[in-house]
Amino acid sequence: METITLDEDIKVMYITAASFPDGVMAAFDKLYATVPPESNRRIFGISRPEKGVITYRAAAEEIVAGEALKLGCDTLVLKKGKYCAISINDFMKNIPAIGTAFQELLAVPGIDPEGYCVEWYLNDEDVQCMVRLKTMD
């Protein structure tokens, strides 16, 4: 486990999965069909309990102001700050490792109760699982 810092907020556009975990791949398929691929665009999976069920969003960084509106996507902001993180290499060979990582991360004292479970897909094989820590504003 490590601590990483996001130095700035990240605005993302997203597709909400119809269900979790079953609808996750379909949400990413729709995201990839909607959002133009860019080599510098960061890709995320974002989830948290909402109204008693886990809501999962397949998300892509908005790299041009206003593109989410143009593409008809909803947006949210991943807040800057410190995140507790666990890296998973070659995650497609061990998808359950993502859930295990979040179980560990959610047990860390001082996580932001308003934050999200964030999967940052670094490339096709590696994912950084992260939860934001509370700030002392």
TL;DR?
The protein has 137 residues and is an alpha+beta fold. Helices cover 20% and strands 39% of the residues.
The percent range for helix content is 10-25%
- Count of DSSP-assigned helices: 3
Low-confidence segments: none
Assign the CATH architecture: Alpha-Beta Barrel
> What fold name stands as the CATH topology?
Multidrug-efflux Transporter 1 Regulator Bmrr, Chain A
Total strand count, please?
Answer: 8
- Principal-axes shape call: globular
Overall CATH class:
Alpha Beta
**What is the number of independent domains?**
1
CA-atom Rg in angstroms: 14 Å
Strand arrangement across the biggest beta sheet = 1-6-8-7-3-4-2-5
Tell me the fraction of residues in β-strands, as a range: 35-45%
Mean pLDDT: 93
Taking the alpha carbons of the first and last residues, their distance comes to: 24 Å
Structural class: alpha+beta
How can the largest sheet be summarized?
8 strands, antiparallel
H/E series: EEHEEHEEHEE
Fourth-tier CATH superfamily name: Regulatory factor, effector binding domain
